[in-house]
UniProtKB/TrEMBL annotation:
Its cofactor is Zn(2+). It comes from the Bacteria. This is Peptidoglycan DD-metalloendopeptidase family protein. One of its GO terms (biological process) is proteolysis. It holds the Pfam family LysM_OapA. InterPro entries: Cell_wall_metabolism_enzyme, Csd3_N2, Dup_hybrid_motif, LysM, LysM_Opacity-associatedA, M23ase_b-sheet_dom. Residues 44-67 are annotated as: Disordered. One of its GO terms (cellular component) is cell envelope. It comes from Pontibacterium sinense. Residues 44-53 have a biased composition (Polar residues). Gene3D superfamilies: 3.10.450.350, Glucose Permease (Domain IIA). One of its GO terms (molecular function) is metal ion binding. Residues 106-154 form the LysM domain.
Amino acid sequence: MLKDQLRRFKGRFPTIHLIAACLCASIIGLTLTLLPSEEVSATRTTQQLNLPKQTRESLPLPDTRSTSLPAVQPLQAKLEIPTPVTHATPAVSTPKAAPAVDDNWVSYTIGKGDTLSSLFSKAGLSSQDVYSVTNASRHNKGLSRIYPGQEISFLIENDELKKLRLIRSKLVSTQIEKTENGYVSQIIERKPEIQHRYASGVINSSLFVDAEKAGLSNRMIMSLASIFGWDVDFALDIRQGDSFSVIYEERFLDGKMIGEGNIIAAQFTNQGRLVTALRFTDSNGTSSYYTPNGKSMRKAFLRTPVDFARISSRFNLKRKHPVLNRIRAHKGTDYAARTGTPIKASGDGKIIWRGTKGGFGRAVIIQHGSNITTLYAHMSKYRKGQRSGSRVKQGDIIGYVGQSGLASGPHLHYEFRLNGVHKNPMRVKFPNAAPIPKKERPAFKAVAATLMTQLESYRTTQVAVLQQ
């Protein structure tokens, strides 16, 4: 019986062995399948490349919410942010573009750091060429004064400079040409087309704000204030309801406006008083502004030595000092303005004091003729290039608003003294400048009549348009 059982067991053994062998083979095969290999990855790549071609728009977006893989981070690139241009000089790219070529001319846009020598070198010319051009005459020496944004062109034939052209602005260029007598220069000026434009407005806030609303640029507003600055104190006298009208020039070149010119006629109504200014150029080429009857708008002194400031303290002999906190005569006028606001000489004269003066801090005193002096105090700094003894003209900048000395805030303290006696600069009567000379009166009358007609015509037209 035992022998029969052993015989049956031995008969089954091969079957069990085969099962075990199959099981081992299966495990090995499964393991090989799960393990990554370069061959398998290559197979996947091949299959992906054989997918049907689709457009980018037709590709489905992956659902990133259904995967637990970390999100792919974008590459971080350092961005170069250009610095904003705060001046009118055209920006120059770096590296510089290839020079423009017009027939035999080769042109370069002058960049920061360029010199006349470096530009000649770029054009294939030598330092000897630079010397020959700049020393040919005293006029040619000014060629070395170049600025970024200007354009310089060379005409070179047989390795020799024949002509040079420097475009300094849209209207002015310098051309140098080689002749038998050496390099000769000439200034070429283009004259723009002048067109007149009219603007008017009513003061509701300030001259600056309301003139800007009327379409005047900052430059035109400052010119308007300067013209009427002898008659109107824009810090003290302006009232709501005052009005202005102005005819000014716009300059065009090749059909494009390139800038503004001068104010040729203007009117300002201040507290019901109409002031008219007309521009006239005499036979000597000197231009100035006059009233319709030929009196000069210019006075011996400006009413306000700073532009668009506000009165913070008037002339008062019984004022309480804001710093000392006691009664102390205030023998001048204080103009509150931002630190750094330019301070102008109110009249022609000579600086007789420039330095620190007690509670006035940094101060300047100007002598006007034999009996008038003006004082400007609490400056933050002086204008460079001036000193005690320097001559100044009316409107010249002499310093900048600050709060040096005994000052509670940035402002200009301004005093006007006649024969050593303090006068209220807001009320003192200033002498007029010289009127139209007798020989110029016929020409002035013709110009004045034309300008007054234009002012009335523009005003009437504008009223008609507003009433439509």
